[in-house]
Amino acid sequence: xxxxxxxxxxxxxxxxxxxxxxxxxxxxxxxxxxxxxxxxxxxxxxxxxxxxxxxxxxxxxxxxxxxxxxxxxxxxxxxxxxxxxxxxxxxxxxxxxxxxxxxxxxxxxxxxxxxxxxxxxxxxxxxxxxxxxxxxxxxxxxxxxxxxxxxxxxxxxxxxxxxxxxxxxxxxxxxxxxxxxxxxxxxxx
Amino acid sequence: xxxxxxxxxxxxxxxxxxxxxxxxxxxxxxxxxxxxxxxxxxxxxxxxxxxxxxxxxxxxxxxxxxxxxxxxxxxxxxxxxxxxxxxxxxxxxxxxxxxxxxxxxxxxxxxxxxxxxxxxxxxxxxxxxxxxxxxxxxxxxxxxxxxxxxxxxxxxxxxxxxxxxxxxxxxxxxxxxxxxxxxxxxxxxxxxxxxxxxxxxxxxxxxxxxxxxxxxxxxxxxxxxxxxxxxxxxxxxxxxxxxxxxxxxxxxxxxxxxxxxxxxxxxxxxxxxxxxxxxxxxxx
Lengths: 189, 284
Hints:
heterodimer, A: Arc Repressor Mutant, subunit A, 9 helices
């Protein structure tokens, strides 16, 4: 892609979504510096394959690439999470309930009187500890506000799966948070 | 419908993704099933909490700088470096974009270009930096502005930026005659940094409108001229919005509402609007 017009088009279509790209990578990799590397790699890939971009949803197209790069990174650096994701998917197909073990560091003593800052902290930590398959749909939907159709495109899964993963992910969050913070959790954040 | 099936549909309902018949079925069920109604309320609270409380991580400024540098350098064939630049830290520095756009013959790399580039990068970081982006008023539900942004993006994608490519206002303005209801103010502001590139016929708000294309440094600005219909409220106070990373500014002059959209900084867009307003005023 050496044509300056193409390059300008890429810049104007893709750079405005840098915050969204970074946010997704940050939530999937779990830390800032890896997210930066992944996003940079994703933009390079996007630039290389810009000729295949048919629009009009630049954000979904870019985020699909960002997500793929995240998963390549996870495969090398966090393979346990991916194995777990496959288990989740199998359980989902079989219609079995899955047991979710949240990360031990998230388990603290229950408190009912928490200030807003602490509640936010618990909510964020609960999402951070969600299995990857649920975490990504929750972040894409509840934080980035994408439609089911866009999420299906980005995560490369059917819309029905988007719906069921969101349902399960949110169920996990409800159970976890209500157990941790008492029945009032979801009503005061 | 049994409660198990309802549980899955509840999420789609809360997310506004359920179709009409599903919505009706679900609402019928919620009206008489206490436990599903309670589940609905818990889920609705949770999604609201997630939306409000989950951390948004904006792209760090240094990442943005690296991306901008990468875009400026990467796709270009490697220029032969002058000997004095070899081995110095200036090797990695690309030419300032303006130089390239002019097709400058001299490809000398020096401190001046470096400073020019550094300045343009700083500009970008401030312009579309995370803070600006998140602090801008949300434009959800602003149908017209969404349309304007969509048109802007479409114009960048296809090879259909201009129907009439000319920097001459006397060529561009008559081209619109008979094609649109209201004629825009056409002027070239290249001495002020906004060069007229041409015009295009576009379709906004269910009618054909004139679109003018300007270039500000490496950025394109689309300006649409939409007629203010009889009985429509005339809003003369300019409004600025940010939609999906693009800045939109609109204002009304006489019978025309102008919409300017671009990824330039909001301040640059305002400068542009001032120029158009002055030109409009001077022509009565």
